[in-house]
Design goal:
By secondary structure, the chain is α+β, with helices and mostly antiparallel strands. The protein has five helices and nine strands; from the N terminus they run H-H-H-E-E-E-E-H-E-H-E-E-E-E. Bound molecules: zinc ion.
């Protein structure tokens, strides 16, 4: 090796060493000893950027509703009101229909703000055994997410977005036998969190 080559190799080694030890570019001060930059990390680089926590983005991690239901809907005058929200939830997971009612009405309110295409909710009344099939067949049917003329559906509201309301009514005789029956949302992916029991008593 010639002295020129040695000098070059030394410079490369110094540059590599400087690069490896400091995240800051050392281009302006190539002659500075590596120890000068070693301990100095600029505070604004070391500080991680503030991250906004997605408070309501994901589904709430709660245990799935029991078959019997733990949040009964308030029933009065053969009707109940169920609220739904932007967190993919109903505010009740059980509706008990009084046996004295001949028809029963469920009012659905969407108290969130998200549009129907992103966070649509409905209420579908059907046999528990038909629930998954109804939701699967309605998956690609927009905007209602119910197959046209699906005779497994006993009653359903419209699919609504934030601020919307819709109601359904059905003949109570239709759910007296042959159950169990459930109410649920047929928007794709919502069934797991949005369903509840429906019984006559
Ligand atoms: Zn829904």
């Amino acid at each position: 090796m010639t002295p020129r080559h040695l000098l070059l190799a030394g410079a490369i080694a110094l540059a590599l060493s400087a690069c490896g030890k400091s995240p800051a570019p050392a281009a302006e001060t190539p002659a500075a000893p590596p120890t000068a930059a070693e301990q100095t990390v600029p505070a604004d680089i070391a500080t991680p950027p503030a991250v906004e926590a997605p408070a309501e983005a994901g589904p709430v991690e709660t245990a799935p509703a029991a078959a019997t239901g733990s949040k009964p809907a308030v029933v009065a005058n053969c009707a109940a009101t169920i609220e739904s929200n932007d967190a993919m939830q109903y505010d009740a997971d059980s509706i008990t229909v009084p046996a004295s009612c001949s028809t029963f009405t469920i009012h659905l309110k969407h108290v969130g703000q998200m549009p129907v295409a992103a966070m649509g909710h409905n209420i579908v009344v059907a046999k528990e055994a038909d629930m998954r099939g109804i939701a699967a067949d309605g998956m690609t049917v927009t905007p209602e997410h119910l197959k046209a003329g699906d005779d497994r559906v006993i009653a359903h509201t419209a699919m609504i977005g934030g601020g919307g309301t819709s109601s359904l009514s059905f003949d109570v005789a239709l759910i007296k036998d042959g159950g169990p029956y459930r109410f649920f949302c047929s928007f794709p992916g919502h069934l797991a969190l949005m369903q509840g029991s429906l019984q006559v008593q």
